[in-house]
Amino acid sequence: MATKFIVLLKLTTHGRTHGPEAAKSLETAAEQLREMDGKVNALHMTYGQYDAGIAGECPSDETLTSFIAWINDQKYFSTQTLIGAAPSTIHIMHHTDSFDH
Fold first, then answer.
1. I need a labelling partner for 96 at 20 to 30 A (CA). Which of 8, 21, 25, 47 fits?
2. Domain boundaries along the sequence of the chain
3. What is the pLDDT of residue 18?
4. pLDDT, tens digit, 9 for 90 and up, residues 38-94
5. pLDDT: is 53 or 99 the higher one?
């Protein structure tokens, strides 16, 4: 099963001072993920708390970790990663995370 994810990105100081290169690094990130047998489903620059977002799929958690490390190594963005789950798993998560046992 593929690991679905959303990565929220904030420009670093380096990224803000090298805007065109930072934007290009997002395109390169999509290529990098494809080389890792992953897939970018959406890539957007955003307004607000975060400057960009990537939604995609990786063949494993390890691949996702490597992808995030690659992004951080570019020094243009800091990242926050969200792992995706199907809405049908919400009731399972609710019951297993309870402290009322």
1. 8
2. 3-96
3. 95
4. 999 999 999 999 999 999 999 999 999 999 999 999 999 999 999 988 777 766 555
5. 53
Report the SS3 class of residue 101: coil
- What token pair was written down for 33? 């993920």
Domain 3-96 has CATH 3.30.70.920: yes
pLDDT of residue 2: 84
Q: Report helix, strand or coil for 73.
A: helix
| Edge-first strand listing for the sheet containing 52-58 | 39-45, 52-58, 3-11, 77-83
Q: How far apart are CA 43 and CA 66, in angstroms?
A: 18
Question: Under a CB-based contact definition with an 8 Å cutoff, are residues 7 and 65 in contact?
Answer: no
CA-based nearest residue to 65, from 43, 81, 44: 81
Q: Which two tokens stand for residue 13?
A: 């100081």
